[in-house]
Write a structure and sequence with these properties.
Blueprint lengths: L1 E7 L3 E7 L5 E8 L2 H12 L8 E5 L5 H8 L3 E4 L2 H11 L7 H15 L11 H34 L1 H7 L6 H9 L3 H6 L2 H11 L5 H12 L8 H37 L4 H5 L6 H11 L9 H8 L4 E5 L2 E5 L6 H14 L34 H9 L25
Parallel strand pairs: 1-4, 4-5
Antiparallel strand pairs: 1-2, 2-3, 6-7
Helix pairs in contact: 3-4, 5-6, 5-11, 5-13, 6-10, 7-9, 7-11, 9-10, 11-13, 13-15, 14-16, 15-16
Amino acid sequence: MTFVGVDWSEAHHDVCVMDADGKVLAKGRVPEGVEGVSRLHEMVSAHVEDPSDVVVGIELDRGLLVGALVASGYAVHAVNPLSVDRYRDRHRTSGAKSDPGDAKVLADLVRTDRHLHREVAGDSELAEAVKVLARAHQGLIWSRQRHLNQLRNALREFYPAALEAFGTDLASSDALAVLEAALTPTQGRSLSPARIAAALKRGGRRRGIAERAEEIEQALASPQLEGPKVLSRAYGDVVRSTVRIVAEMTTQVEALALELEASFEGHPDAEILRSLPGLGSVLGARVLAEFGDDPTRYADPKARKNYAGTSPITKASGRSKVALARFARNRRLADALQMGRSAASPTRPVPGATTTRTVPEATPTDAPCGPSPTGGWASCTAVSSVASATRSRSAGPRSRRLPLDSYRPWDV
């Protein structure tokens, strides 16, 4: 066996080739691109003939470089950078660090401990495409929320009546349409119900237009503190730009959602994932994207639960033993599963309540999860572990002691 460590970067990659005894056979720096991959193959082929005898360690699980290494027949292990940092301390205690040194650490890591790290998943091309779309869709939603936070902060500084009119729903078509027409408090007070109704119609509202226009008109005309007109005009320009950015991002979010759903529906595991309580096309696509569809990626259902963060960790020392929430997890996957559980169980017990309420139990569909062409059925275990928190529980003082997998990420 021959072991290769690759410390990658945008412009170049440092490579270290090592034999089974830990002796460095070759090392060097190769450029990014086709030339760099060719030189890396030359360094490796000088010491081994069969590509299946080559094990590669790299701090990356995707991209053109990783794809080229996998296509060459190498066994590629994607190692978490935090793990590499811990392994680096085994080689030196001074804290020194260098790119060639990291390449050597990676080569030695896969030589001694490759059984503790997963190989790069052999997901299908369709699953990879779903992952690209799912992450881009979620990332765009997060970016839009950051702009909405900036918009709310600007309105709070000079236009509190707008926040009274729309509250936290600044992303709605009503809010964007009215704010486009009333950028400052002065413009807001001058809007008549008829003009507000026209703006609501342009935004897409079809029902309750007159009633909603009256509510908005009263909120915008309410007394409020005002700053200098020059400052209000400057804030108004900021609001105009932010509103237009948010409106365009909303359009692109919807367009990406359509592309995501179309790609997801074409996958063999789509029907199984959509059959799980709380998972629709978008959340199902996110779950598929993060779990992947390689049937050999996870050793057992527990490995899936650990990856999703739905299983607790145990810390035991002597007579002390405590179970804690698992924070080392795929956060995108955990977020999708949590949202699915919330959709499957819209009510949950209120800690400290004096009355008794129960949460409806998530019942499986008529068709239980079964094997699929890609072996994706095992993901049902991780999702069902989240839904298990929907069992009936009595509210009251003891309701604070909920199972760990029933807590939301912001509750712990």
